[in-house]
Amino acid sequence: MKLLIDARNLGSKPSGIGIYAYNWIKAFEENGSLEVHVIVDVIESAQIKELDLNGRVKVHCYGRTSNKSANIFQYFKYVKRLIEQVQPDIFWEVNNLAPIKIKNPYGKYIVTIHDMFPITMPECFGKIYPYYFKYGVAKTIKCVDAILYDSNYSKKETEKYFPLAKKKDSFISYIIIPPIPEMDVEEKDYFLYIGNLEKRKGTDILLDAYQLYVEQGGTRELILAGKIRENDIETRIKELDKKLPGFHYLGYIDDETRTRLYRECGCFVFPSRAEGFGMPIIEAMQCGKPVIASDLEIFEELVGQAIDMFEYRNDSNDSERLFQKMIEQDNLSDERDTKRVVNKYSADNLDKKLIDYLAEI
């Protein structure tokens, strides 16, 4: 079976969806039963360079970044040409939507829809993107043969806003989370957050909670790593960096640094307002680290009671409730619960299920 994947978010500094695509591509590569072709806009990230170098996956490069609105339509004209060239049994759009009508005359066309946040939280996405998202998702759902979802929560939300999705074949394909490598490090006691830095991710909640923690006598450091996505968050980070000696922002980090931080930290904090999945929580659990997160429905589905949650109510007291959890945190995690959750998202558990589904549709 020949699979063509649009992995444009993997080309440069990949975060959530880019890493989602990479982990599935690696699983398919290891399985060896599929002929895998990958489309990217540029070849800049370590992940896509690795795939391109090893040769077991065919990488097709557009040659220009596609993150600007004008460029994305030209990029998809390139995608359409590649469908004609590769003639895949399945074309997989992993990025929620395609903004133009796509057909795969040689087989099936599927999409992964991760979340509905541009609709449910439009204030986090600027003035134009929520309209682009609604238009693109509606067009994509009309065209596809099947929809993959990261979770039951994502499926429920999509069908709420796009009822046509109920009529499409679908499959819950949880995210593959490969094991964090072992590393000989000295364990430290700091709080850690890894991910995009924006209000949707609760960065402002965490910053306010940590300032309150320090003001109330807390002594543990806080390390943040990831891309800053909003100007007011950047301003707040600069303020705390000058004001609080235990506060550290590292920017976008490589895989080795990410591994070291997970292995060293005393507790991982993830106070997101909305998530389609929440991969960093599982990665921290792989390292045996306790986790504090907001009590979102998606986290209940993914990890149950295996982590500590604070009551997120989208009000002015969210930071104080997170602060209370940080003060009370004891660095203990339940090994049995952790192992059960981690195994649920391993490639061994998930890749064959998806491959079997792709062969059936």
Structural overview:
The chain is an alpha/beta fold and 361 residues long. The protein has two domains: 2-176 and 346-360, Rossmann fold; 191-344, 3-Layer(aba) Sandwich (Rossmann fold). The chain has helices at residues 16-31, 46-54, 69-86, 117-120, 129-143, 152-161, 203-215, 231-243, 255-264, 279-286, 297-303, 318-328, 335-344, 347-360, and strands spanning 2-6, 35-40, 58-61, 90-93, 108-113, 146-149, 169-172, 191-194, 222-225, 247-249, 267-270, 291-294, 308-310. The chain has a seven-stranded parallel β-sheet with strand order 3-2-1-4-5-6-7, with helices on both faces. Helix 7 packs parallel to helix 8 (231-243). The radius of gyration is 20 Å and the shape is globular.
Shape verdict? globular
Low-confidence stretches: none
- Give the helices and strands as they follow along the chain: EHEHEHEEHHEHEEHEHEHEHEHEHHH
Q: Report the β-strand fraction as a percent range.
A: 15-25%
Oligomeric assembly: single chain
Query: What is the CATH class name of the largest domain?
Result: Alpha Beta
Share in helix: 40-55%
Give the radius of gyration.
Answer: 20 Å
Please, what is the CATH homologous superfamily of the largest domain? Glycogen Phosphorylase B
Domain Glycosyltransferase subfamily 4-like N-terminal: 15-168
InterPro entries: Glyco_trans_1, Glyco_trans_4-like_N
Organism: Pseudobutyrivibrio xylanivorans
Keywords: Transferase
